[in-house]
């Protein structure tokens, strides 16, 4: 059975440990082990997995056509570079790579090359010179990050609105995506709808409200099933941490006014094999849409998780990691029979004892 690794195994290195000199400005770590570009409120978060995962966030320079400067782009790079396809983890609407604080360590423990990437406009990238944050810009930014750093066809994982990001990317750059995994996918919304027509002053007021603790607490109430108030409050602080960066409001308003993602017409164009994961108790997006998505995707399988809400990779990380691992192994076993990737086989056997 899969289980979260002990937090001691994921703890940051001691303060006196030797660190690699950063290559770019703005990525030095603080004495507490957190990157200096993270909001200081990271110190108030109690979740040990969030705190540990935050120490691994870094910024990589990404060149794009719509900005004169490289965008220092936030992500968690893998500890392992393997011969198998990398698993690249996106996040949902107005979120960050910290969504993967529980599941990402499990995937690495299983021997997978796992990336957690922040989508342009959200997360912890440096947007001081604010670029456009519309769909086209998000797609190009992610492609350039993949092209320069990941370089291999990937298993692309998109939860919630990240599923729309993943579908849009897979259709436009099929050479970069080997398989898809869509988790409680928000892919039938028609972009940002009427919000795109709001006057900017009204849009900014709405976005300001979006980062408030009461709104985020209510969102957690809808998103998860049966968590305590103290846990919900701490998860709220994790989920809104990126909102405290000075350019977050501008980037979110830019995305809202741009019209957002509308990928329903692209679903049938997806040629990659796809795993659909869905929480049966999702109160954000009905699991009836999971069945619809399964019917419309040309080559898909579906797995539903009982007693689980909208973000299974946060609420049921063991189950999600197991499903991802088994999905990756479908093709890996064929490669291992030819003498490749024995490490993954050993890891997977130990996890399923």
Structure description:
Pfam families: Abhydrolase_6. InterPro entries: AB_hydrolase_1 (IPR000073). This is AB hydrolase-1 domain-containing protein. Residues 87-322 form the AB hydrolase-1 domain. With 353 residues, the chain is α/β, with parallel strands linked by helices. It has 13 helices and eight strands. It has helices spanning 7-10, 48-54, 103-109, 135-150, 161-172, 200-210, 213-223, 229-239, 248-258, 288-296, 312-315, 317-337, 342-351, and strands at residues 58-62, 71-76, 87-89, 114-117, 154-159, 177-183, 273-279, 300-305. It has an eight-stranded mixed β-sheet with strand order 1-2-4-3-5-6-7-8, with helices on both faces. The termini are close together.
What layout of secondary structure does this protein have?
Elements: H1 7-10, H2 48-54, E1 58-62, E2 71-76, E3 87-89, H3 103-109, E4 114-117, H4 135-150, E5 154-159, H5 161-172, E6 177-183, H6 200-210, H7 213-223, H8 229-239, H9 248-258, E7 273-279, H10 288-296, E8 300-305, H11 312-315, H12 317-337, H13 342-351
Parallel strand pairs: 3-4, 3-5, 5-6, 6-7, 7-8
Antiparallel strand pairs: 1-2, 2-4
Protein name: AB hydrolase-1 domain-containing protein
Domain AB hydrolase-1: 87-322
Organism: Carya illinoinensis (Pecan)
Q: Which structural traits does this protein have?
A:
353 residues; alpha/beta; Rossmann fold; 8-stranded mixed β-sheet; 13 helices; 8 strands; globular; disordered C terminus; AB_hydrolase_1; AB hydrolase-1 domain-containing protein
